[in-house]
Amino acid sequence: QVHLEESGGGSVQAGESLRLSCVVSGYSYRRNCLGWFRQVPGKGREGVAAIYFEAEHRSYAESVKGRFTISQDNAKKTLFLQMDSLKAEDSAMYFCAATRLGCGSLFQHEYDFWGQGTEVTVSS
């Protein structure tokens, strides 16, 4: 049973930073393919960043390029999302997810396992 648990959300001012964490357990696939998504009420889930660790490949949504950084610590089985220069439009519920075949994808339908989310609020 794959389990993902996010933490690190909170309320900050525009221009500030937050670091989200996601502890992954029960994920025994050979390739480590994880991603971050976000969702605001009334809208679909948007892919933010994805990582294919073994290929050293990272993908980012255009809206966060240069501001967000995805990384992972395999020893600690933890995925991170460093969010800098936050904007009001970054406010959302953020989810981490794992995929078996969609490595590097930012499309939610390619992800098989999801966490419960952590909320980020950015005030302008």
Provide the fold topology.
Elements (H helix, E strand, L loop, with lengths): L2 E5 L2 E4 L4 E8 L7 E7 L6 E7 L4 E4 L7 E6 L4 E6 L8 E7 L14 E2 L3 E6 L1
Parallel strand pairs: 2-11
Antiparallel strand pairs: 1-3, 3-8, 4-5, 4-9, 5-6, 7-8, 9-10, 9-11
Would you identify the regions where 5 or more consecutive residues have pLDDT less than 50? none
Q: Determine the N-to-C terminus distance.
A: 40 Å
Instruction: Tell the overall outline.
Output: globular
Largest sheet: 7 strands, mixed
Q: In DSSP terms, counting alpha (H) and pi (I) runs of 4 or more, how many helices?
A: 0
Percent of residues in beta strands: over 45%
Mean pLDDT across the residues is 93
Number of strands: 11
Order of helices and strands: EEEEEEEEEEE
Radius of gyration: 13 Å
Alpha-beta content class? mainly beta
Overall description:
- It contains no helices and eleven strands.
- The protein has strands spanning 3-7, 10-13, 18-25, 33-39, 46-52, 57-60, 68-73, 78-83, 92-98, 113-114, 118-123.
- The strands form two sheets. Strands 2, 4, 5, 6, 9, 10 and 11 form a seven-stranded mixed sheet that branches.
- It is globular, with a radius of gyration of 13 Å.
- The model has no long low-confidence stretch (mean pLDDT 93).
